Amino acid sequence: MRVAIIAVFTDYHRRGAHHRGGLQPQIGPLVAALLPDWCDVEIVNDTWEDPDWSRSYDLVFLSCVHADFDRARQISHYFRRRGARTVLGGGMASNYPHLCRPYFDAVVVGDPEDTVPRIAADARAGRLQPLYRSGGYEADSVPVPAIEGVAHKQIFPLSVEATRGCPYACDFCALTALGTRHEVRPVKNVVRDILAGQATLRQLGVASWKRRLIVFYDNNLAGNLKWFRELCLALKPLDVRWGACLTFNVIANRDLLKLMYDCGCRSVFVGLETFNPVTLKDIDKPQNNIGKMAQAIAQARDEGILVIGGLIVSPLHDDAAYIRALPEHLDRCGLHVPSFVSFETPIPGTPFFTRMAASEQPMFLPHANLYDFSAYTLVLQPQKNPLHEFLGAYRETMRRIYSPVNRLAKLADDLPRLLRRGSWTAAALDVGDMHATRFDPVPGRTFMAGTDALPPEVIPFADDDFDSESHRLDICSPTLVSDGEGRALPHWRSSQQVFNLESPTRRKMAA
């Protein structure tokens, strides 16, 4: 059976470009490893390249986040018209299976480990079901990822998922929309995956330096600190260099930073989010501490670990003066240049979306489409300034933050600290990050939902791919989230949580 696994991507910067950066989707190698050996599998990371439209498949797995749903359903339609059966998984499928089902032969709610093998068997037997629900995550059932299919199509091919989920319940996070959980795998299985991946890369002739660099794709690798310390100690004898996404409380702990560096950590991404305490409280992110940000970043660099951070601006609580002050905040805390400055966005299904949808006054911009909910287009009405003033301050500030002079100034501050510790890998990553990070919007970008430049990605449909004009419009029209007044459309208020686990963090805080 010919099977494609497509991780769907829409360029959020509206260039229609692929994103051949250091991070690439890893759902393909995981799903491929879950499929029986009678499947002939092709992995397509839409971030790296388009699907081969000339290929034919029996079964197509697609995975997408909410903002990529329009492209996912169009890809599905294209291959369905050519005889394939299509399956959608991911956050959108889990939160809104009822909205997805008309466009796919099957929709998956939850994890792939216990659903993908059933789907393959049912498809082969001609009894594919419209809906599959996972029975829950079982850490021991996670296979060694089949990275050979994408080893030459990512900068860092040794990519590992050691945990799943996050113990925190941030108001705007898509993970919170699914339900709070944090699952850890046996450390010995994580080491097994690393050693197997290195062996595969060696057989494929991948450069030796790439076999020593590991990217952990976890949303929060250190959500369980006891387990995280155990993992660090298990990585030390492997003599690898690694990076991961972590939370602020980790970089605020100097002893933990020392252990991480000693065990190979050279880079971490942290969602610093904001310098506004009102915004921080509203997004429900108690693990961050604005007052300790400068100290945490400085000690991480002094210990040889590069901190890469992301920021959001809040349409509810930030005004133009705050946005214009961001470069000064960034300089004082030592981050200087974040990997992104995005808009706080109420992704459908999140508690934040539910709050905005329930408001008596219209909170959304009119005619916001689902592809606008990428965090790089504003979808909410600013509450502190007129819309044009808020967006004008954002544009002006982005140019300042990502100017060549500012990026060089960051390197001038970072590199001496990192190199004093002998952290050449972190220094190289910093240089690469500053080379790739910039603000260069395409003509026509308004950054405003309903009027922003349209996503330019296209599917090469033929005239006979549609039965009527109404059929074409159903497949190709954008998926609306808000009406002409800026109110959420009713069907977006009926999302479902997949995991009904109480947050360990909340239990601790409540106590």
Automatic annotation (TrEMBL):
Protein name, please? Radical SAM protein
Keyword Iron-sulfur in the entry? The reply is yes
Name any one Pfam family assigned in the record.
Answer: Radical_SAM
- Cofactor(s) needed by this chain: [4Fe-4S] cluster
Where the record annotates domain Radical SAM core, the positions are 152-389
Which species is this record about? Caldimonas mangrovi
Sorted alphabetically, which keywords does the UniProt record give?
Iron, Iron-sulfur, Metal-binding, Methyltransferase, S-adenosyl-L-methionine, Transferase
InterPro entries (alphabetical): Aldolase_TIM, BchE-like, Elp3/MiaA/NifB-like_rSAM, Methyltransferase_Class_B, rSAM, rSAM_sf
Lineage: superkingdom: Bacteria
